[in-house]
Amino acid sequence: MPDLFLLNISASSIFDAASPEAASIRQLTFEFIIAASAVLLLVVILTSYITVKYRSKHRHEDPKQITGNRALEIWMVSVPLALVILFLFRSLATMNAILPDRGNHTPDIIITGHQWFWEASYPGTTVTTANEIHLPTGKRILMLLNAADVIHDWWVPALGPKMDMIPGMNNYLWLTINQPGIYDGACSEFCGQQHAWMRIRVIAQLQPDYERWLSEQTTNTHIPQDTMAKAGAILFLESTCSSCHRLKGTAAAGITGPDLTHFGSRQTMLTGMMANDSGNVARWLSDPQAVKPGAHMPRFIFAKDSIRALTAYLEQLK
Amino acid sequence: MSDINFIPEPEEPIPSLSVSNNQGILQWISSVDHKQIGIMYLWLSVLFLVIAGIEILLVRLQLAIPNNHFLAPEVYNQLFTMHGTTMIFFVAMPAIFGFTTYLVPLMIGANDMAFPRLNAFSFWTTFFGGSLLYFSFLAGGAPDAGWFNYAPLNEYNYSSSPGIDYYCSGLLFAGIGTLTASVNFIVTILHYRVLPMSLKQLPLFVWMILINSFLVLAAFPSLNAALAMLLLDRQLHAHFFSAAGGGSAILWQHLFWLFGHPEVYIVILPIFGIFSEVFPVFSRKPIFGYGMVVGSGVAIALLAFGVWIHHMFATGLGNTVNSFFAASSLLIGIPTGVKIFNWLATMHGGAIRFSVSMLFAIAFLIEFTIGGLSGISFAIVPIDWQLTDTYYVVAHLHFVFIGGTLFGLLSGLFYWFPKMSGRLPDPRLSKWFFWLFVAGFNITFLVQHALGAMGMPRRVYTYPDLPGWGILNLISTIGAFLMAGSVGLLVFILVRAIKKGAVASPDAWDANTLEWTTSSPPGLKNFDRVIPVKSTRPFRDYKRPEDADWNRPEGARKHEGKYIPQNNPHGK
């Protein structure tokens, strides 16, 4: 059964470059592939030719005993040396273009890796969100990457280089996204039990759309109208949910779990594991360890109608 | 010396491959004979190969289809961690040390290692280390943070089962065994060569072991220190690697890769040595560029300590650091790469015999070139930024570890098996094994290059159903089972050959070096007398005196007379 929520992804391979950073790496990769193929072809041809031509026909006659050839040995070293020097200079130029010194730029976005979700906050605003990371297109942005527990790694192949997120260290990446779209990626450093379900979803938007989204996100938590969701809101605050999750504008101010202020506006849940719908939310609330073993959400033994109320509440937090 | 003999000595002078002899298993356990210890290393390696193979088959089953629930994530993580750790430390290393322990004394005309008891100690410490590592399964969980076990995931807070404590102590024991074995190899090679053999006449396998042993001495202390520090962190609440306590997560990576990258060369240099024996014998020509093969081995060993950051290009160390290590990593590709052309030139103009050993050597030339070239892409920093920690790395490292190390070990196995057992493996079945294994290997790993470029990270216990991911993973799983089947066939071939294989002559391949001058298998005392050594191919000189290397104008002759034996400096 294909996961329907995956179908609208724009790109996910290193060859679908959607940023100048990724495009310059793709260019270098093509050059490397050409050079490497030439070397491999040479070795394959030589190996086949020599093994066929010089297969033994006369068992007891030794061929001429050649122990070396100085001129050939010099060629064997100098040709690869030349190739290697060429690629060294190409890669230094690309490195410096992709990741120049950040000077005194302030980052446009701070992304923190957690076991197992991404926290994204936007300096200069009050916005903090999780997992689905909205970024503007056509603008060169500086990302600050760090980690809250173990080492994680930011990697969206279509957008260019990966970068480790290391507790106690701040790492930076420059990024310019060409086109609006959804770009898929994943945590690329083994980070424990649920490393597999630490997918990244970058939602790139045109500047005006992005700004509209950002201003929507600055609003406080939606106050529910119907009775079911109202009951859910009370449950959320009275159970221990609020000690790990934040709902802006309410008493829920936990920071260990993902921010849920606008949870209902996200397409996926559990860091890209499944579509965000009421069935999945209810399943998750009734037994988190069965859905995502190892996740740091304990099992609360909620009654069936409590789960219905919480689900209704969370799903309308647009 | 008293006449009382506490150690049961074999009465029949054949420490052969089979366990059954007049003293039974006790003779093996108490043995200090280098041949028996070498064979025990090899059997240890086969045992762990089967275990680590079963582990990875379970992993591949889990990955065969997207969103699979065959294995729980915590089980999956233990299995891939144990697979990697076992393959490196308890398959590749013991196999190499097995060949080394068995062959080095024979190839230099000695009757045993310099320190026979230390030799036994090295083996049993390694054996104990491996057993300790596997005891973790019974003690509450195997290590689960990957074979390179990054901090702080390896700390108690994130991995509270005792697995990683067993990882530390098991590898510490094995590491001690490795170090003592290397000391033993160095002293044996430098001091116990048959009298006229100069360093310039050392067989290339022995040369590579000499270089390699120094590499071990310099690299393993870094690992052992890191393991001890981690044990302190976990058991006594030190905080070398925890950022929260003022430690550094990245320090583990520096210490580990300062060992880890030389380790990659530690498991490939002896293989270069094996191929440098196999190519000349089966081409009936001397090695092309003996000096260059030795020199590039030394160059690799020195450069190996200056490239470890290429495992860490994505950790944000900055462009200055990355540029330096990009240069050194590109540079180390050259001495590694030119050896391919040395071997090609050795075959050129020769009379090539397609024994199974030679088939693996020829296949190696192409497979290892693929692995080497994909390795170069990690020295090109921007490409590394895309592809590190993906399935592309998994493909790369298996092309060097299997296409390089394992092909070399198999080539060496088919080459020296007649010497070790006195028997010949069935040639038809052996060729079947070769083709099945090579096919399975390529089916398994070629597609993983594509998976990496398509965005699949390594070490994920499952993956979403993205276009192409399912089918490529399924192909890989099918290939893995084909490989496993062929390894089953190999075990069958070997057991059958030991039991009722055709009897091999002492010089089964018309070879060049001293180990072939003694009986197959050699008696307890290797040599009664050693033939004169005047070139790198003493046995060929002996068999073809009219065409001896030392007697040829352009060959080794120009060196004659310059050599002063180090244990007889006045030439008396």
Question: Could you characterize the architecture of this molecule?
Answer:
The complex is a heterodimer of chains A (318) and B (572). Chain A has 318 residues and is α+β, with helices and mostly antiparallel strands. Helix content of chain A is 36%, strand content 18%. Chain A has a 5-stranded mixed beta sheet with strand order 3-2-1-5-8, with no helix packed on it. A 3-stranded mixed beta sheet of chain A has the order 4-10-9. A two-stranded antiparallel sheet of chain A has the order 6-7. In chain A, α1 (20-53) packs antiparallel against α2. Chain B is mostly helical and 572 residues long. Chain B has a single domain (31-528), classed as Cytochrome c oxidase-like, subunit I domain (Cytochrome C Oxidase, Chain A, Up-down Bundle). Chain B contains 16 helices and 2 strands. Chain B has helices spanning 25-29, 34-63, 73-107, 116-139, 163-191, 204-236, 249-266, 269-283, 290-303, 319-347, 356-379, 381-387, 391-421, 427-453, 469-500, 538-543, and strands at 423-424, 502-503. A two-stranded antiparallel sheet of chain B has the order 1-2. In chain B, α2 runs parallel beside α4. The longest helix of chain B has 35 residues, at 73-107. Chain B is globular, with a radius of gyration of 24 Å. Mean pLDDT of chain B is 91; it is low at 1-10 and 555-572. Classes of the chains: A alpha+beta (318), B mainly alpha (572). Chains A and B meet through α1, α2 and β9 of A and α3, α9, α10, α11 and α12 of B.
Overall average pLDDT of chain A: 91
CATH architecture of the domain at 227-315 in chain A: Sandwich
Shape of chain A: elongated
For this structure, the CATH topology of the domain at 227-315 in chain A is Immunoglobulin-like
Radius of gyration of chain A over alpha carbons?
27 Å
The two chains with the largest interface, and their residue counts, are:
A-B, 91 and 96 residues
Number of strands of chain A: 12
Strand content of chain A: 15-25%
Can you tell me the CATH topology of chain B?
A: Cytochrome C Oxidase, Chain A
Number of helices of chain B: 16
